[in-house]
Every structure is written in structure tokens, then in C-alpha cells.
Task: structure prediction
Amino acid sequence: MPASLQFHGVTTSTPPNAPLQISNSSRHAPSISVASNRLKFSGSAAALCRLYGRSGAVPKVCCKKEVFKDVVEGRGREVGKVEEELTCVMKFGGSSVGSAERMREVADLILGIPEENPVIVLSAMGKTTNHLLLAGEKVLSCGDLNMSKIDELTFIKELHLRTVQELGVDTSVVSAHLEELEQLLKGIARIKELTLRTRDYLVSFGECMSTRIFAAYLNKIGAKARQYDAFDIGFITTDDFTSADILEATYPAVAKRLHGDWISDPAIPVVTGFLGKGWKSCAVTTFGRGGSDLTATTIGKALGLREIQVWKDVDGVLTCDPSIHPLAEPVPFLTFEEAAELAYFGAQVLHPQSMRPAREGEIPVRVKNSYNPKAPGTLITKSRDMSKAVLTSIVLKQNVTMLDIVSTRMLGQFGFLAKVFSTFEDLGISVDVVATSEELDHVVEELKKIAVVNLLQHRSIISLIGNVQRSSLILEKVFNVLRTKGVNVQMISQGASKVNISLVVNDDEAERCVKALHFSFFESGDLSETDLDDGFGNGKVSAFKVESR
Ligand SMILES: Nc1ncnc2c1ncn2[C@@H]1O[C@H](COP(=O)(O)OP(=O)(O)O)[C@@H](O)[C@H]1O
Ligand SMILES: N[C@@H](CC(=O)OP(=O)(O)O)C(=O)O
Result:
């Protein structure tokens, strides 16, 4: 039986002396895809060059299956299996890896898809991040050095040690981290200080431990795996602790490290989500809560992978938050723009920044359910058929403060809006996330010099993600529903991205509104998708209400 080589499940065959044609083409090529990684050298390419006695750098690499065909057969008998490329990234969140049983199921899930060579990204187990933060707060406020009184630490220790035991891996994979964590908490208690920088270091223990346990378990069951701390493999960020941004240098560095290791000694990479390294401080940073999604999309872009999968505890992105309305349904397709808007306006399902690398690299993102892998999930791509789309999803952001700003000067006074925005800029406040009342007091004080300002608290933003080409139709329906419910809309805004209409209502009416809107758009069966062709949307309204008298 002639020997043959496997390229991502495509068995190829070739005459021995065919020339090795090398060209830099498609990103999603099936195998020797140096182009995909923007690296100079690919393992498979290297193998092919060895096959043909070529050495040194590969100028460009062929991505065409037909060429593999020409090259591989015959010589393959001599060389054996050419290494395969990493194909996708699979991110599992805390809810997916919250126990030994869940880790086993996730391992089965990964190994049950043999055609994929995934990079695995994991979050901390279950609610570990919350427990770490609570433990930090507790030792800070009580200053007690007796760690056995800190329930959250006890819980974290028990969870990780129990998981290690149940999976049958060596306790040493987490014991040093547990010891160090205790020392850190004692340090916080002693110096009575918990800076944002220390907070990031504190929460990093969650991901550092979950990935070590999981990699050890994969190795134990015979699937060779290698653990990575993201802050050690090139995730370079700004020094904005607790909400760091990933810097461009990350992409080549991460690609070089993961790809290089894979080529020289293939093993499933298991990478900590959520964590990076500040470029100035060299300290551990985090990307903000839910930041492991961003780790996954960054790796996807860095390596030019075929697909990014984020595995959750729901059947994909849903038509609304299932904790608000249990009849929420999966949305089968989304564009990067829609998904980004949805995340930005508060849908917990995706990290707000996570779509950026995927969009830039044009890598499809699939949101799947690790508890129900057969469900199709949501596929997020650059574009989709919008011809029938009306409303895609409803997002609720509660406890928002609204500033009602009315100019005291003449109508049309130029420079007014510039002054309003420069006030926010000078005070370093993002319009959308004014965090503390102290900050608000400063803003109001400054704005009162040029305007009448009303501070309206306890408001909610309901964001309607959908086809804003149908905004008149959407708004007609929305106002009908809200009128029958006796709800007054206090502000309306259409995002420049053209996929989002936002409404501001009182907090205590918000959930009722979402349920009623969901019923009307998605359950009554008459309008979630339609062929009706109506006009274009209304004019833009600013993020907060500004009038001129
Ligand atoms: N529109 C939405 N679609 C899906 N999930 C949503 C939505 N809004 C809020 N959620 C919540 O987001 C959670 C995300 O899943 P989860 O598994 O917790 O994420 P992760 O694995 O990243 O921690 C879901 O459990 C769900 O309750
Ligand atoms: N563990 C971090 C990062 C993360 O992404 O978690 P999850 O994937 O479970 O949302 C957090 O809780 O925020």
C-alpha cells in the first residue's frame, strides 16, 4: 500500500520530481500556510523543503492543494507524516471548566474533533475570579492574617485540590500557586493596599491554575499538551490595569512562540485567557471581565487560524439575556459589527473588545454551547444576508445615569458641543461609563458654566441590534409596544454603526419593556424577519441629550 501524507484530513499523492511551487496566497489554505501566520517559515513548508532537499528560508509558501498533490506522493514514503498546522482556537469560559467533570467533558469534546488542531484558551474555573476579588477585599478590610477565616480562599483551595484529585493529576500542578496566593493575600492584609495592579496579579491565579490542571489532565490521558501563561508568550498590553488594551506587538510575538513550539514539538497549546503583560511595568494585566474571549480572538488573528470558537453555557448569542427572559432564542448569524455592538452595549455573552481582532483578521467566530455541543450556535462573520433581517437581538444595560444638557446660549451657538465634550475629556470621563457620583459632580459643576444640567439617575439603555435600514419599521413597532405598556421613552439614539437603536427608559420599567419587545419581535412570529421594504432611519441623536434654546 503506498504511503501518503495527511494535510488536514486531505490525503494527497504526487509524482516524486515535481517542482515545489511556492506562492504566498490564501489565508485559509488547508496546510502549509506561512502566509496565514505572517511568519517566514512554516513547519509543514519546512518539512516539504526537507523532502526536496532544500534548506534555509522558504521564500514563499504554496497553499494550493494541487501543488501538495504534485509534491507529496512518492517522496512521502521516505519522510512519513508532515506536521499539520494549528487550525482553530477554542476558548472555554469559567462555566465550561468549573469542575473535574466539566474538564473531562471539555477534553472529550476537543479530542472528539480529530480533524482540528486547536489552540485551547481557558478562563478560571467557575466563579474563581469573583472569589479571588472578594478574598482581596476581605483581607484588605479586616487586615486579618489568619487566612483560614477567608472563606473564599478556602473555597478556591478546595475546588482546585479536589479537581486535581478527581482528575488524577499531580497536586504539584497547583500547590505552588496556592501557596503563593496565600502569601499574596497576607501581603495585602499587611500593607492594607489593593491597587488595580495588585488586583490583576491576584486574579491571574485563577487562569494560571485552570490551565495547568487541564494541560496536566490532557497529558495524563495521552493527548500531549503544553501550558502557557499568556503574559510569558508575548501578550503585550498597555499598563491600564483591570482594562488593558492589547498592543500590536502581541500578534507576531504570540504567533512566533505558539507556532514555533508547535513545529518543533507538537503539543496542544493550553493558554491562560484574560491575562497580559504591561509593556512598561512588565506586571500582569487583565483585559477586563470576560477578557478570555479577547485572548482567543487575538490568538486567532495572530496565527491566521481558520476559525475562532468560544464555548459558553448557552446555545450561542441569544435574542436577549436569558436571565431576563427565558424565551430568548439563539441567533444563527451575526456580523462582526452586530456582535461588537451587542457586546459593547452590555450583552454578557462576549467581551466588548473581542470582535476587533477577528474582524481585522476576517476570521469567523463561532459561539457554541459546551453543555450542548450539537447545537449549531452562532456564526459571526464579516457580512451576512440582511435582506430579511429586521431585529437581531435586544440588549439591556441597567443603572445608567443620563445627563440632560440644555445650552443657556443662543440657538445654534457654535462650539457648544465641543465645549461639552472637552469637559468630559478634561475630566478623563467616558460618556458611556461615568462610574462614580464624585466624577459626576465634577462634570455637572463644569457643565453648569455653559448649560442647564439635569442629572437623571436609575435609567436603563435598551439597545436594539438589527437592520437599521428598517429603522422606521422597528421604531413603529417599538413605540406601539411601549405605548400599550404605558412606558415613556426618554431618549432615543441611533448608533453611527447603523446596526443599533438605543432607547433610555426608567430602570424599574426596563425588564418589562425588554420582555414585551421580545414577545413582539420574536415570539409573535410576525416581524423578526420580513421582506417589507421601508425607508431609511431617523437622524442621529447624541449619546446624551443636548438642546439649545
Ligand atoms: N444576548 C445574550 N446571549 C447569550 N447569552 C447572554 C446574552 N446576554 C447575557 N447572556 C449571558 O451570558 C452568559 C455567557 O455565557 P458564559 O458561559 O457565562 O460565558 P463564559 O463562558 O465566557 O463565562 C450566559 O450564561 C448568559 O446568561
Ligand atoms: N476569569 C475572568 C475572565 C473570563 O473571561 O472569564 P469567563 O470566560 O468565565 O467570562 C472573568 O471571570 O472575568
User: Anything to note?
Assistant: The chain has a mean pLDDT of 80. Residues 392-437+450-524 form a domain with the Alpha-Beta Plaits fold (CATH 3.30.70.260). Residues 93-94, 123-124, 129, 206, 273-274, 289-292 surround aspartyl phosphate (ligand 2) (CB under 6 Å).
